[in-house]
Amino acid sequence: MPLLVSGVVLAGGRATRFGSDKLAHPYRGQPLLHHAVHRLAEVCDDVIVVRAPGADGAGLPPGVRTVHDPTEGEGPLAGLHAGLLAAVRSDLVVVAGGDMPDLQPSVLREMLRVLEEAQVDAVALSQDARARPLPCTLRTWPAADLTHTLLHAGRRRLRDLLDASRLAVIDEATWTALDPDRRTVFDVDEPSDLSR
Questions:
Q1: Are 42 and 105 in contact (CB under 8 A)?
Q2: 122, 139 in Cβ contact below 8 A?
Q3: Does the structure show a pLDDT above 80 at 18?
Q4: Which residues, at least 6 apart from 63, have a Cβ–Cβ distance to it below 8 Å?
Q5: What is the pLDDT of residues 30-82, one digit of tens each?
Q6: For the chain, how are helix, strand and coil distributed in percent, rounded to 5?
Q7: CA 55 and chain centroid, separation
Q8: Are 124 and 164 spatial neighbours (Cβ–Cβ below 8 Å)?
Q9: C-alpha span between 12 and 76 (Å, rounded)
Q10: Least buried of 34, 98, 116, 191, by fewest C-beta within 10 Å?
């Protein structure tokens, strides 16, 4: 029986360096957030977008589910926890930031393959000899339980989850063979990034 996979897009941050709502900013003819949603939809059975408290889901592509961070300013780990709880029926999740428009499905599929085949609960990509927190793939319930524990211990970073998980890291040579331009790890922090 094939495993069910959910995509979780973290879209609840404040984007202070951008100066405006960067996820609504046009990029290649559509809002920046839509690119991450569409890329995850290519490899996932459903996609969940985690928004800030009170933010609506208006303008998202059809079929996308929206959940909210429980509290403003609690950091990405709290948003991920909300997304994992919404993915309750899924075996695995692919997690990405809403500001990552060029995720490559071939890389995401490789991350899922490693997660399915290895005795691990999380998979990340290596860049500059370090595991990147996004994108990552996770086993849903081990990650939800561990995230809950970390949040109660005052931990707020995605890297905290990876550090505490049974983690496999895909080396740079392997994933860049699938994505030579390294677009999968490109994220938008400032308006000038959109022209790169």
A1: yes
A2: yes
A3: no
A4: 46, 47
A5: 999 999 999 999 999 999 999 988 777 778 888 899 999 877 778 899 999 99
A6: 35, 25, 40
A7: 18
A8: no
A9: 8
A10: 191
Q: Chain-wide mean pLDDT for the chain?
A: 90
Core vs surface per residue 29-61: b (16+ CB within 10 A) or e: eebbbbbbbbbbbebbbbbbbbbeeebeeeebe
Question: 90-101 pLDDT, tens per residue?
Answer: 999 999 999 999
Q: Which amino acid is at 173?
A: A
Q: Which phi and psi angles does 120 have, rounded to 5°?
A: -135, 165
Query: What span, in angstroms and rounded, lies between the C-alpha atoms of 140 and 81?
Result: 10
Matching residue, tokens 């005795």: 119
pTM: 0.93
**Is CATH 3.90.550.10 the right assignment for the domain spanning 8-195?**
yes
